[in-house]
UniProtKB/TrEMBL annotation, chains A, B, C, D:
It comes from Acetobacter tropicalis. This is UPF0335 protein AtDm6_3128. Keywords: Coiled coil. The keyword Coiled coil applies. One of its GO terms (molecular function) is DNA binding. NCBIfam families: PRK13694.1. Residues 27-54 form a coiled coil. Residues 24-94 form the GapR-like DNA-binding domain. Belongs to the UPF0335 family. It comes from the Bacteria. Residues 1-22 are annotated as: Disordered. The keyword Coiled coil applies.
DNA sequence: CAAGCCGAGGAAATGC
DNA sequence: GCATTTCCTCGGCTTG
């Protein structure tokens, strides 16, 4: 029985044969696609940063805007829960 | 009445009048644009994750791929850093 | 009223009974110890800063000194990393 | 008057003569003292981390504890101010 | 699936 | 006062 037929004997190391087969190309493709996507991500981060800069120039408080966005992302129940817990801890400390 | 006419007197805290003026719209725009961009970022993260899944299915070691990508990112950065260091020394020596 | 009577029903959140039980003391202890340690850390930061000031007064370029220290820290880390990478490749190749 | 006596005549570039004079030793001393202090700082960070781990094991929410510590560090006026601003922005958005 | 680790992102301190 | 740098926090990933 050949490796090609079932490919299973070597468990997780199948692409080790990359040195001899087509999978080197496959690997290259994988890496390049990932790098491409991460570049795009980075570009978007830059765009976000620019908007914050714009906001600041317009007189807004960046920190508060971040807080707002965070809040909008959270479930109300979650917010409530955290505040409750904070209260409990505060009381435990007599604050 | 224009924004310039009613908004210019309050110095550095212009958008504080957000409660009553046009800047509420500005704020909304800022926030929505940021949220939009972050959604896109998140989508890209998902795409990357999918590729890793694909890689794993194809028998590659995800951990190694990550390491490779990290190295490919690092090397240019290191070159850059060496040049920066050289510059600094040059300046320190007044060259 | 004992801790078991009022606090035990809440499953995984045992210390939620902090309001009524002994864990308030535990919480206080935790917080105070952390605050103490962070004060010490802050003091050390001050010491470091003083040394940089001294260095500057002595005519050294602070920026360069920082860079030197960073490099001295990095080099061992990089050696370590290379070894890690080697290990990973070895495993990937089943060696 | 010698350089050793006042060290001030050549302005900021005094230690450039490090290659030939005593200041190489001075530089070494500076760097080693800083590295020593930073090690201590790092050790304290480790201690803090340990306490958080302990807290977690005891069933406390680390995130909330961090929040508490942050609050205890802040001026009440400061807290108030941020909340006010957050409210203003929220209203502007009709949240 | 839980915990520990690592890296990115956000906040704060500092120097110009 | 703004921009850079440094530090801390948080979330995601990896591992056991």
């Amino acid at each position: 029985m050949t490796e090609e037929e079932d490919g299973s004997f070597d468990g997780q190391n199948d692409p080790d044969r990359a040195t001899g087969g087509i999978s080197a190309e496959r690997l290259r493709s994988i890496i390049e696609r990932i790098e491409r996507l991460e570049e795009e991500r980075k570009a978007l981060s830059g765009d976000v940063k620019d908007i914050y800069t714009e906001a600041k120039s317009a007189g807004f408080e960046v920190k508060i805007i971040r807080q707002l966005i965070r809040l909008r992302k959270q479930e109300p129940a979650e917010i409530e829960e955290q505040e409750t817990l904070l209260d409990i801890y505060r009381r435990a400390l007599g604050m």
